[in-house]
Design goal:
6-stranded parallel beta sheet, two-stranded parallel ribbon, alpha/beta, globular, binds magnesium ion, binds adenosine-5'-diphosphate
């Protein structure tokens, strides 16, 4: 039986793709067959740069259209880009593509878009997609001033939605952040899920506490 995880974040541009790719590599090193999925992307033409990064990390080759069913050129929120392109995002189609990937790998790592409540259509958000796929959620926290509020808001929203937050990741995107360790410790106390990894920009692969994924 394959399993999957849904990667969301405190914001856009805080390292969801960076962390998802590192997590895929960690699972591959452990001997699992892993494929990444970027169901909805915007701001690229031809292929999504996020999907390409996930593909490079993965050790399962799958159809690009399964990995990235929706790609919009306009670098705006997907619900606006989709309206412009007259291509509504259908969660059922994404779920079908997810099932195809799940048949080909032990683990599917799905990267959301924006944050937890980012709209995918006029009425459905990233949250609805995560619930539709029924996946446990990993929250990437971009460590910078203001992230405590964003992380705790996201955690509360995930919990209230009924989705299961299984872990969070401290992604150290601001080399000048003051009191980094104390901020991480604050979140370790405040989050209702364990810390999976502290990730920086160095060459060394981050150490994921994979046993905490349950
Ligand atoms: N831990 C990190 N160290 C250094 N650079 C990072 C780190 N995490 C992300 N980045 C860089 O920050 C930018 C945004 O990261 P990305 O993973 O694309 O964010 P998101 O997927 O949340 O939009 C990218 O240029 C990425 O290479
Ligand atoms: Mg991304």
């Amino acid at each position: 039986m394959s399993r999957g995880y849904f990667i969301t974040g405190t914001d856009t541009g805080i390292g969801k793709t960076w962390v998802a790719a590192a997590l895929i590599r960690a699972l591959v090193r452990r001997g699992e067959s892993v494929v990444g999925m970027k169901p909805v992307a915007s701001g690229d033409v031809g292929r999504s740069r996020d999907a390409e990064q996930l593909i490079r990390a993965s050790n399962v080759e799958a159809d690009y259209d399964d990995i990235n069913p929706y790609l919009f050129a306009e670098p705006v929120s997907p619900h606006l880009a989709a309206r412009q392109a007259q291509t509504p995002v259908e969660l059922a189609l994404i779920a079908e593509r997810y099932r195809r990937l799940a048949q080909q790998a032990d683990v599917v790592i799905v990267e959301g878009v924006g944050g937890w409540l980012a709209p995918l259509t006029e009425t459905r958000s990233v949250q609805a997609l995560a619930l539709k796929l029924g996946l446990p959620v990993i929250l990437v926290v971009g460590m910078r001033l203001g992230c405590l509020n964003h992380a705790l808001l996201a955690e509360q929203a995930i919990r209230q939605s009924g989705a299961r937050l299984v872990a969070w990741v401290a992604n150290c995107i601001d080399p000048d952040m003051l009191r980094l360790e104390e901020n991480i410790a604050t979140l370790e106390r405040g989050m209702a899920a364990p810390l999976l990894a502290t990730v920086d920009g160095g060459d060394a692969e981050p150490d994921f506490a994979l046993e905490r994924l349950g």
